[in-house]
Amino acid sequence: MAQEAGSATNGQVPESDSKAIQATPTPDDIVRQLRASTLFSRLTDAEFKAVLGLMRTRMVNEGQILILAGSGDTHLYILRRGKMLIRAPEKGGRDPVIRFVKPGEILNELPFVTGHPSEVTIETVTPVQLWYIPRGEFQQLLEREGYIREHLTYTPEEEKYIKQRRRFDTQRTGELVLWFGRKHWWVLLRSQWFTILMLVLIGATFLPPVRPIFSGPFGIAFTGALLFVALVSFLWFLIDWWNDYYVVTDQRVIHRERILIIYDSQDEAPISSVQNVTVNRPSFIDTVLDTGTILIETLGAQANIRFEWVGEPTKVSKLILDQQARARVEVAATERSKVRSELRREMEVGTKPLPASAPPAPAPKAGKGEKSPPFLRRLGMGLADLRNELLPRMRLVRAPDVIVYRKHWLALIGATIAPFLFLLLYLAAMVFVWFGAPSLRRLLFETPAVVVVALLGFILLFWLVWQYEDWRNDLYMLTTERLIEYKRTPFGLLGTSQRTASLANVQNVTAATKGFVDNLFNVGDVAIRTGGMDNELNFARVWNPRGVQREVVMRLEAYRAAQREKEAARRRREFIEWIGIYDELTRIHGERPLG
Q1: In whole angstroms, what is the distance from residue 263 CA to residue 244 CA?
Q2: 492 or 253: which carries more pLDDT confidence?
Q3: Which phi-psi region, left, alpha or beta, contains residue 391 (left: φ > 0; alpha: ψ -120 to 50)?
Q4: 570/249 Cα distance (integer angstroms)
Q5: Span 280-327, pLDDT tens digits
Q6: Residue 362: phi, psi to the nearest 5?
């Protein structure tokens, strides 16, 4: 392999590869090779035929990138004809060619099985023809025909990835868990002091001096009560310890803290934003048990995320830093691959256009009688708009790139319950006076006192409407570039306020749910910490706070990726311009060594 990689790096094709490239396998040969692969070897003929029914064909020109390291292409490819090479990113800014691909080889199997991004880059050397199986359609086939999944055979590496693929509830598709841990067992043992005390008291009831006292019905009931309290205490602290966990994935670091039906919080940060990792061992017990606290700093902030009472903290911190370095290596390899593509385009290598896909069929034009919606449709649209205006949705997509969140209707109930009850009491009193107290009715409605009665009713109604409008006018908005916290006083009488934060300044995002009712209805706060003076935006009392957190983090990662790509594209243009200028000067003045 080393010899093959070395000769490939020097631009020479190994002799064995040249012979393999010349001997193009027939379609039957490729089908037999696919049938004999480890993944499909145990499928029945009918099952394998169903898999073959998903096969597609793809043509790729010379000098193109089929799969980029870290990209989301998870299709299974089989090289039908042509020549390709594989690069593996390395530290030190290199991504050497490790080998050439022979016709008939199966490519990208690990991402196809696990959904995890590819760890290598695959490029074409000559125009190639590929067969491929789309992973999405393959997964749909497995859902329809569940028995096929049972007959698939995985390699040890694929088995490891599959076991790590689903370890916590907010895990993303294709996200690989590198480490999953909880607080050290010492924390669980230390929290059980009350349980131990109850067990000691139960044991004390069996001592000879006091045994006669607890031998009767009272003693049995007392001992049973202590045992029940001890069991409840043990289960409570066990569940509390179990519900807290830490995760390091290939994309994020996560801290989840939960107290049963009372509190739920999740802190997370992209692995690419990690700046520093510190390990503290504050006590002698930490040294003896090999535990400690890991402080993870992101983008200049201090200790954004804390992993407390972690076993083998040095090993975990090294894992985080190694993954961060690996992510940077993949970014650098991606940039070099794009530089190669730009240079090939300038050199007119592989510039023959690929066959264009058929354009989508134009939408049929509406006839003259369909220019405006029918009456019932207009009525339905009007009622829907009225509903959204009077009782807005808690999450609304206004445009493809704008998501609007509002406070949960529990916040509306909390704000309007007092004026609503007072108004209800006022109306009940008016009904009683009108029908049950004629003398009081004449006093209140047939004298100038009616002005006071009407004014009181108006004030209560205005108070209710004011609280409703105050709830309805608070908006939290997420766009592709910024976060907006917008507050408008009812009817704009006391003005508006708007706080805006660029996604470029976001350091980390935290979601928290507090209290039994909020946990029951999945309501909480999302805190977005930024680097400014007033450095936090708070999306208060929103529905599904971890879903909001996930959308903010995904927008943040997309924004940073777009900014990196924009800056990288600018550098690539400058680099190619410099090469063009150098080429022009060498043609004019002759080639001379630089420096």
Answers
A1: 11
A2: 253
A3: beta
A4: 31
A5: 998 888 899 999 999 998 765 555 789 999 999 999 999 999 888 888
A6: -65, 145
